[in-house]
Amino acid sequence: MAFQDNPGFARRTLLAGSGAAVLAAPAIAQSAPIKIGLVVTATGPAASLGTHLRDGWLLGMRHLDTKIGGRRVETLVIDDELRPDVAVTKVRAALERDKVDFIVGVVFSNILGAIIRPVTDAGTFLISTNAGPSTLAGRGCSPYFFTTSYNNDQVHSVMGQVAQDSNYRRVFVMTPNYQAGRDAVAGFKSKFQGTVVDEVYVPLTQLDFSAELARIASLRPDAIFTFMPGGLGVNLVKQYRQAGLATIPFLSTFTVDEATLPAQGEAALGFYAAASWAPNMDNPANQAFVRDFEGVYNYVPATYAAQSYDAARLLDSAVKKVGGNLTDKNALRAAIAAADFRSVRGPFRFGINQYPVQDFWQLQVARRPDGRFQTETVRKVLSANIDPWAPECRMPVRI
Amino acid sequence: MNATLLFVQALNGLQFGILLFLIAAGLTLVFGVMDFINLAHGVQYMVGAYLGATLAAWTGSFWLGLLLTLPATLGFGLLLEFLVFRHFYDRDHLSQVLATFGVILFLNEGVRVVFGTAPLQMPMPELLSGGVTVMDGLLYPTYRIAILAVGLATAGLLWFLVERTRAGMLVRAGASNAPMVSALGVDIRRLFMLVFGFGAMLAGFAGALATPILSVEPGMGDTPLILAFVVIVIGGIGSIRGAFLGALLVGLVETLGRGLMPDLMRLVMDPSAARQTGAALASMLVYIVMAAILTFRPAGLFPARR
Known about the structure:
- The complex is a heterodimer of chains A (about 400) and B (about 300).
- With about 400 residues, chain A is α/β, with parallel strands linked by helices.
- Chain A folds into 2 domains: about 1-150 and about 280-355 and about 390, Rossmann fold (3-Layer(aba) Sandwich), CATH 3.40.50.2300; about 155-275, 3-Layer(aba) Sandwich (Rossmann fold), CATH 3.40.50.2300.
- Chain A has 12 helices and 15 strands.
- Chain A is globular and about 65 Å long.
- Chain A starts with 10 loop residues before the first strand and ends in a 14-residue tail after the last strand.
- Residues about 1-30 of chain A have low confidence and may be disordered.
- Chain B is mainly α and about 300 residues long.
- Chain B has a single domain, classed as ABC transporter involved in vitamin B12 uptake, BtuC, CATH 1.10.3470.
- Helix content of chain B is about 75%, strand content about 5%.
- Chain B has 10 helices and 2 strands; from the N terminus they run ααααββαααααα.
- A two-stranded antiparallel sheet of chain B has the order 1-2.
- Chains A and B meet through α1, β9, α7, α8 and α9 of A and α1, α4, β1, β2 and α9 of B.
């Protein structure tokens, strides 16, 4: 298909499986297709995350024969351009003009924060496949909102637990100087009880980390914890390795993953990450996902792709449960909440706030026999973990 | 903060300053000589990085890639000049800003279409992959020392070209009074074109040189562009000497500020507030220094035009 080579689109209708629809059409199939608005970031420096997310969803569609619950699917790809105002305008158009049945996707929390009200006010279900902000997990939880990812705090706390379990007493912490960076430090400290020898906050536009690296060398910590998404992480990982600091364990979140590893390569080898999924997870659903993803798109999928793929499977299971009838919102919501599908990460269920209750793993960057790099599971750190905000959620029983 | 650490931080600052100089040198020439605001200078740096990484992958050699980047970015600069910039030399600065900003958007999107959204990888050249132990547990990568050397050599070469050659004399004359140079029978358009191409080549060279250290991704030129403007404004527009000293100053202030500010703040407030304030102040420090210099020397430290 042409779209996989061409990420520079703004918005495109993907119509597929048109011929096959007749073949497997069960009794429940209705003539109109189910329309999905897939919100991704396809412009700006973070576009590679959007590419992962989009390709994960599209592979899900491929595996499902472009049908969910037996009904044909039409996916409208919406580029949020990483601008909340643009996202709101485009999502409104998708809701009102295109009459989409579900909104799926969303890489960034600020985009989700902007579109959540227009979507839920319209009585449309929003399945986030990456952004999982605390606000929507706690007091702001909504019956129309589900996420197949996690709450960020959980991922950072995994690394705190790892540092604790590894008996690191002195840890150096470095994150960008913005809200998510400070949340990362708080999440880490929620499980780590040793000494934080220094906390360094760098500008989001930082290029050269040599000043911070010299500081790390002078303090000689047992480990460092960092959260440096995107290009920041590429710069840090390369420079950390070049400065000969790699003997100090590198604990990170959202810093080394399959989206940045192609650029970090050998420099990231042996560095640690945390997530609820990794490409090497040993279950049939995941093996099929990773094998076919690489076959079709020719790169190693990251969590963004896996969570989108899961969302496709999730919606398929839910629409099947309600017999293709999307009008009864309460039935549909119960069907989604049942999460009756095989997640690529293994055990998966939704908690009271409709965030996943799942296991979290410590991961390590490894080189595969074919020369590509990926994160691989080291050990399970948190089991059936519920995010810290869930108790604050007062979820209505009926919509 | 001991003396060794301070020395290492100063070295880091100088090294970052040299990298900035490589970017700012082309910008100050174009701005000073042609009175042309080229916001697209940052994307030319980015294109250099992409071309460097691609050519190195094709030829299988970092050095060959770096060498080929020079003619490639020169050609690319001349092409941009021919297609876009020459139509804006006589326009006001606002039109130039709009046009070159358009080029930024176009090229950032362009590299995404051509090279994809994921950052590119560029391994360190084998020859320079080691390091020198400068303090306990910290290597100073040989590659960074090489950047220092290359930057100093480039500065020397530029100084020689501008101060000691006929072309350089014309460039200096053009910087101080372009209409007069034109009236004396020099083809000012051709001079402009050459200066522009040369500036683009310098930016591209800096980009290719930075690839083993920095991430090669769309939009990577935006941050260095802002710092490069600070450098040339501090140094005095059009002055290579000013750009050199300005770049070193910005590199030092930026690096030492980040290293020292949180510690300084800790003297007057509690640690957690000191970290936040220190980090915030450190990122502002470059601009504070710029404002201070402009207060006393509105034309910069070494203005080309008097």
